[in-house]
Amino acid sequence: MLPDFPATAIANVRDLLLFYAECGMSYAVISEILHLHHNILLSANAICKRLKRYGLQCRRGPVSITQQELQSIVLDKLKLLPKTVGYRQLTDLLKQEGHHVRRDQVMTMLRQVDPNGVQFRSRRRLLRRTYYSLGPNHTWHIDGCESYK
What we know:
Elements: H1 13-22, H2 27-38, H3 44-53, H4 67-80, H5 87-96, H6 103-113, H7 115-122
Helix pairs in contact: 2-3, 4-6, 5-6
């Protein structure tokens, strides 16, 4: 749902940009809203440059968690999750739970907390299981390949 711009204010581009940026919208969404509702054509890149000129830095997202809290949460999550979960999935899980964290923060925290897991994932090599089967067509993989030994 589109937030209502204050009706009493005269809508100039600067006020609109600042209002929608403070609502937490991405630059692409702001660009679309300006085009559809205010008949103003600005690209997302132009919006970013203008907001920077107005003193609002390019956003990397709000952060509402300290490093110690993030470390304890990441340690708790790593106990429950498989070791193939990387910083991207972990960041998404934290955001779904309502924590506002940046991906780079989670990445550096994972490097500190779980260096072996980071090295394991960076090699992009999974540990293959060895199956012992009674004979052909006894054990099948989901992908349809037979596996027997």
